[in-house]
Please model this.
Amino acid sequence: MNRRRKVVIRPAANRDFDDQARYLAKASGLKMGLRFYESAAETFRLLLDHPRLGRATQLSSPFLIATRMFPLKNFPQHMVFYLPFQRGIEIIRVVHGSRDLEKLVES
Model:
């Protein structure tokens, strides 16, 4: 991995992680909540090395035209929305696929 590249996580994405990890820990135990964080870190490393791996989103907001989405490793129903940039990736949101994705990502 190129050490000069970095992952930037927006505050909304941080809240997404914490909320989902807390939910999983409560529903399935602490190990599952921790596994969610570990899977996110692995997914981010993969996307950092291959920023075009995810597919372009089809969202209508002009603010989201360049966003891409990719399923979270081991949690395929959770989508990582991100923007590749010259020196890395920016994580916009991480949401469960059953939610209104466009409304959530735009908020």
